[in-house]
Structure formats: C-alpha cells, structure tokens
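Example is below:
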Amino acid sequence: MNSKVTIISTNLRGILYMLLGTFFLIAMTVVVRHLSSELHTFEIAFFRNIIGLSMLLPILMKRGFVSLKTNNIGGMALRGIFHAGGMLFYFLALTLMPLAELASLSFTSPLFITLLAVLIFHERLGPRRIMGLILGFIGAIIILRPGSGVLGLGAVYAMIAVFSWSIAVIFIKHLSKDNSTVTMTIYALFFLTLFTFVPALYVWQWPSIEQYCWLVLLAALGTIGQLLFTQSMKIADVSLIMPFDFSRLIWASLFGIFFFSEHPSVWTFVGGGLIFASATYIAYRERLVK
C-alpha cells in the first residue's frame, strides 16, 4: 500500500514540476519580448547564457575541474553551435509572432528529432511512427496555413530554431553516453556564451541598471524552468507527465492575452493539439519498443 502511495505522490510531484517548469519557461519568453523593444535579441541571448553560466560556477567549484573532463570537446562545440543557432532564431521569432503560435510550432521538435534519429542512427521507422509524423506535420500546416498570411518571417525563424535545436538534441543523445549531465550543462552554457557573444558584438549596447535586473530575472526564469522540467522527467513516468507539456500552449496564450493583447485563433489550438498528440504518441511508441 505504501509503495502505491509513494508512486502516486512521485507522479503528482512530477506533474507539478512539469506545470511549473513550463510556466517559468514561457514567463522567460515574456521577459525576452519585453526587453527586445530596448535591446537586440542577440544581446539578450548572450546575457541569458553568461548569467546562467555564472549560476553554475558554485557547482563547478564544489565538484572541481573533474566536471570539465571530456573526450569529445569537438562534439560539445558542435552541439553548442546548433543550440546557439536555435536560441538566436527562437528569440528572433519571439519578436515577430504571437507567443501561442510559437509555442505550438515548438511542439514539432520531437518530430524532427525522430526523423534525424532515423537518418543518423538508422533507427527503425514503423508505420505507426510514420503516421504520427504525418499527422504532426499536418498540424504545423494547419497553424501556418500557407496563403493565409500567417506564414511570415517569424514562422520561418521559428521552424529554423526548432530544426537547429533538434540537431542539438541528437548531439546530446550521443554525448550523454560518455559525459555526465553536469559536464554537458557546463560545456553547453560555455559554448552558448561564446557563440552568442559574436553576433551580440555587432548590435552591442550597454544595458541600463533596470535592464540588467530584467536580464538576471530572464536567466533565473530559464534556469529554474529547465531544472523543474528536467526533474519532472527524472522522477515520474514520462508517458504520464508528457501530456502536461501541452500547458506551454495554455501559458503562452494567457501571457499573450494579458501582456501583449494577442488572441490566438482556434487553428493555433487545433494544429498545436495535433502536433502535440502525434509527438506524444511517437514518444510512447518508442518507450514501448525499448
């Protein structure tokens, strides 16, 4: 009886972490949108990374330089390039399209990851996964509705960001076999800081004291949100908590309405729901196979 209660309690905590994690991550995008009217998104991305890296320094000092030991520094750098590209294009998309539409399109990431895993790792693609992929990309078409005027530069940036991030995830999948989470996180933020600093130089302006406060809040929201999201995946059944990742669309819609007077169309929810359902089904099928 006690074991059942423990499992229920753990799953409930996983669901709560997922809901809070998505809340903080979407709140971070609101801060990015707010700051983008005063600072270029390239500079915002750089400060988000360097402040996040500074937050990890106490962990590095506690664990020592053993956390920096890796046999694949080249893979870490390549992962950083694609991760930085995904972040820069995502931040650009934030300034050009409604939050809810961007959140819906971000659900296509597992679909791209599945395709890349098939091409790179030669993973088997059965008929059910193929159907899931088709339905997911139909959902993206529903959101974008070519010819309706929705498919603008922001949507193009969003899809580039998702694809770039998906490649980064493939590198993460490969690197995680021989590197600890701490090692990968430290190198990720180091290379993200390095690769976002270069484009930030071309648009540089020193932030004001108030802007620095917003930038610290931005980094804190992103770091806390990512930690909560990761912890939810760690302690609870993935197939149980993944449906709650859909709350990203709910938070994005609410924040968009209250802060930016954005009212998402029904097609955003229809397409986003279809994408999310197909991505969740693909993840469920992969878990069954494993």
